[in-house]
Design goal:
- With 204 residues, this protein is of the alpha/beta class.
- Helix content is 40%, strand content 16%.
- The protein is built from seven helices and six strands, in the order βαβααββααβαβα.
- Strands 3-2-1-4-5-6 form a six-stranded parallel β-sheet, with helices on both faces.
- β5, α6 and β6 form a beta-alpha-beta unit.
- The two termini are 30 Å apart.
Length: 204
């Protein structure tokens, strides 16, 4: 697949628990030959180190190398953007991908997006997706949700944002933690229109 025909996706990691969901999603997107722009919050880097064996170095280039090795594929295109890299394509409506996923999405980031904040590149990229009426998928991982969280989700849902909580099902008889992760990632890929065989569909 050429660069001009690749599906382009912005993937943001925030400080919510659930880093394995985002990393597995990244792996699947690259293996599907997508062009992926990754943005990592400072808290996301900490959480990734706590929840996985992955240690992301400072600097976008080195982080790209580590993430590429983790994905274990030479397919797709990967660009890691700095949190304050305002010249990145994702910061502009004329250059941003058609789809953006925040996985996992902290309730702090959820609030910032719902209220139009653009204090970092994650928030700006989400703001671009909203103003350009492009696909935006948020994957919150919190429990329980407060009324504030729910109000922010409702506000965004009414604007066309997909709220896809990291809540795996069990009808596929998961045998491992990886199976639970794949359930959520499969739902995200379905929303993006990326072909996946991670989980059998209902009735199959």
């Amino acid at each position: 697949m050429t660069d001009s025909t690749r599906q382009r996706v912005t993937l943001a990691f925030t400080g919510a628990s659930g880093a394995p969901y985002g990393l597995r999603l990244l792996q699947c997107l690259l293996r599907a030959d997508c062009e992926v722009f990754v943005i990592l919050s400072k808290a996301a880097r900490v959480v990734i180190g706590m929840e996985t064996d992955l240690s992301l170095p400072a600097g976008t280039g080195k982080a790209e190398t580590v993430l590429r090795e983790y994905a274990d594929t030479d397919r797709g295109a990967l660009t890691v953007c700095g949190l304050e890299q305002w010249t990145a394509p994702v910061a502009s409506g004329s250059g941003a991908p058609a789809s953006m996923v925040v996985c996992p999405c902290s309730t702090g980031t959820l609030s910032a997006i719902a209220n139009g904040a653009s204090d970092n590149l994650i928030e700006r990229a989400a703001d671009v997706a909203l103003k350009e009426r492009r696909q935006l998928i948020l994957v919150p991982r919190e429990s329980p949700f407060s009324a504030i969280h729910l109000e922010n989700m409702l506000k965004l849902a009414r604007l066309g944002v997909t709220i896809l909580p990291a809540a795996p099902g069990f009808y596929h008889r998961p045998q491992s933690v990886d199976d639970l992760i794949d359930f959520v990632v499969a739902r995200i890929l379905d929303q993006l229109g990326v072909e996946q065989t991670l989980v059998k569909r209902w009735g199959e």
